[in-house]
Amino acid sequence: HRPPLAHRLAAPLAGSAARMLFDILVTSVPLPRSTLSLGGCPLREVYPMAPLTRGQSLAVALTTYGGRVHVGLVADGKAVPDLDRLARGMTDELDELLRASL
């Protein structure tokens, strides 16, 4: 399968422009509220992921499923050398927001 001509011509230009405009990508992927299944087996875990393109430092993807928010982080190791620390910090701050809201 080949993408339409406009897509084949525009995609490289868009990718180059994106590198000049931003180095962090944040995306939210909505999933249905109902339980998803494949071959009769229910989906129990979700691991959102957004790929990095050249020149980007960090990609954050999130989705909601099963009454929970799931977050995935992908980073360029040179730009974000301690991704685990960032993940822990995000978890700590979200926990603090939850406590403050109760």
Strand order of the largest sheet: 1-4-5
Rg calc: 17 Å
Structural class: alpha+beta
Number of helices: 2
Q: What percentage of amino acids are in beta strands?
A: 15-25%
Main beta sheet: 3 strands, mixed
N-to-C order of helices and strands: HEEEEEH
Secondary structure: helix percent? 25-40%
Oligomer: single chain
- Overall pLDDT level: 85
List how many beta strands DSSP finds: 5
Poorly predicted regions: none
Distance between the termini: 52 Å
What can you tell me about this protein's structure?
The structure is a single chain. The chain is an alpha+beta fold and 102 residues long. It has helices spanning 5-21, 83-101, and strands at residues 24-28, 37-38, 41-42, 58-65, 68-75. The chain starts with a helix and ends with a helix.
Secondary structure elements and pairings:
Elements: H1 5-21, E1 24-28, E2 37-38, E3 41-42, E4 58-65, E5 68-75, H2 83-101
Parallel strand pairs: 1-4
Antiparallel strand pairs: 2-3, 4-5
Short description:
The chain is α+β, with helices and mostly antiparallel strands and 102 residues long.
